[in-house]
Amino acid sequence: MSEKNLLQTATFAGGCFWCMVKPFDQWDGVHQVTSGYTGGHIKNPSYEQVKTGQTGHYEAVQIIFDPLKITYDQILSLYWPQVDPTDSEGQFQDRGPQYRAAIFYHSEQQKIKAEQSKQEVKNSGKFKKEIVTEILPASDFYPAEDYHQDFYKKNEKEYQEDRKQSGRDEFITTFWN
């Protein structure tokens, strides 16, 4: 069996996908992180369509990883500190259904692990509000336009400014560190 056959997929939504690539991209065993759209009702949507909030899509990242180097549990543990799991209206400065947080499972095992990790977040006592991050079956994933891919590398200054304005880093420091 080739190494490519061993690779697995994880898909997460956590607000603007620009901020969701870097936390996963830097780990050994992660082969690729693609920004895109999932969960909607039209085929091959554009950013212009998704940003209206009318297509049902989430901005998401799809992660291709080698489970022998980084496990799905480890990837879940990287996911949760990137989001406000109590916000059902978007994430940080990004508001609307396209910016909601969600875990999209690709197998029954991923579903079980995602539900267990959500329960751990609930039990942690970090949050007074209900944990509302959805756990949903994976559906068609459409890669975003090229200019959205690896945004943090290609547009470092704009990426840093967007993160600073979003309130994401302050939230992460307050609740997760």
From TrEMBL:
Instruction: Please state which protein family the record places this protein in.
Output: Belongs to the MsrA Met sulfoxide reductase family.
Give the matching PROSITE patterns: PROKAR_LIPOPROTEIN (PS51257)
Query: What is its biological role?
Result: Has an important function as a repair enzyme for proteins that have been inactivated by oxidation. Catalyzes the reversible oxidation-reduction of methionine sulfoxide in proteins to methionine.
Task: Tell me the ranges covered by the Peptide methionine sulphoxide reductase MsrA domain, including all copies.
Answer: 9-160
List, in alphabetical order, the Gene Ontology terms for molecular function in this entry.
Answer: peptide-methionine (S)-S-oxide reductase activity
UniProt cross-references to InterPro entries, sorted A to Z: Met_Sox_Rdtase_MsrA_dom (IPR002569), Met_Sox_Rdtase_MsrA_sf (IPR036509)
* Gene3D superfamilies (UniProt xref): Peptide methionine sulphoxide reductase MsrA (3.30.1060.10)
**Compositional bias annotation for Basic and acidic residues:** 157-171
Entry EC number(s): 1.8.4.11
Catalytic activity entry? [thioredoxin]-disulfide + L-methionine + H2O = L-methionine (S)-S-oxide + [thioredoxin]-dithiol; L-methionyl-[protein] + [thioredoxin]-disulfide + H2O = L-methionyl-(S)-S-oxide-[protein] + [thioredoxin]-dithiol
Q: Which residues form the active site?
A: C16
Disordered: region residues: 157-177
Keyword Ligase on this protein?
no
Full protein name: Peptide methionine sulfoxide reductase MsrA
Positions the record marks as coiled coil are none
Out of the domains of life, which is the source? Bacteria
Keyword Oxidoreductase (UniProt): yes
